[in-house]
């Protein structure tokens, strides 16, 4: 038996350097991609504070002094409701994982009678405006869970449209008119014995 040897061609000068530079470049790109991927996972799956810190860096997101975050999806016009006003809103509330916990196409609500973060957001909006708001748990329900679909210490995410609002004085006038016309909705119907 004979062994046939194949001569190895000599490596050109500088080729080994190019190989090492290319390998170093691939490692740097891989490390950057791993860091970016880990950062995104930390934002999505990390603590509420990590999530809100990452969310604050997104385009158009404004963070108030209280920690409420909002993004104007469609600006409204005119004045904003006050704490004592009643707002007519359309909203959809979700948790960080996208589960819908509350939704309504058109509901009146006292601006001062909702969780602090929602109240603050309503006072920033104008009629016809649409906002996405992120309410930290301390401005929402905190450690109390209002139901099984919303765990304690949840960040609340709402898409809110401010359809209209009326002042406390206008609301009192409406209530008086309704009483004069035969009773308040939800109250006892007129003419019930003993009333």
Structural class, judged by helices and strands? alpha+beta
Q: How much of the residues is beta strand, in percent?
A: 15-25%
Q: Taking Cα atoms only, what radius of gyration do you get, to the nearest Å?
A: 29 Å
Main sheet, how many strands, which sense, barrel?
6 strands, antiparallel
Distance between the termini: 119 Å
pLDDT averaged over residues: 85
Number of helices: 4
Low-confidence stretches: 188-195
Largest sheet, spatial ordering of strands: 1-2-5-6-3-4
Give me the count of strands. 6
Helix content: 25-40%
Shape: elongated
Order of helices and strands: HHEEEEHEEH
Could you describe the 3D structure shown?
- This protein is an alpha+beta fold and 195 residues long.
- Helices cover 32% and strands 23% of the residues.
- It contains 4 helices and 6 strands, in the order ααββββαββα.
- It has helices spanning 15-45, 48-56, 116-124, 168-180; strands spanning 62-63, 69-74, 86-94, 100-110, 130-135, 156-166.
- Strands 1-2-5-6-3-4 form a 6-stranded antiparallel beta sheet, sandwiched between helices.
- A hairpin with a 5-residue loop joins strand 3 (86-94) and strand 4 (100-110).
- Helix 1 crosses helix 2.
- The model is unreliable at 188-195 (pLDDT under 50).
How would you sum up this structure in a few lines?
By secondary structure, the protein is an alpha+beta fold. Helix content is 32%, strand content 23%.
Which features characterize this protein?
32% helix, 6-stranded antiparallel beta sheet, 4 helices, 195 residues, 23% strand, single chain
What order do the helices and strands come in, and which of them pair?
Blueprint: H1 15-45, H2 48-56, E1 62-63, E2 69-74, E3 86-94, E4 100-110, H3 116-124, E5 130-135, E6 156-166, H4 168-180
Helix pairs in contact: 1-2
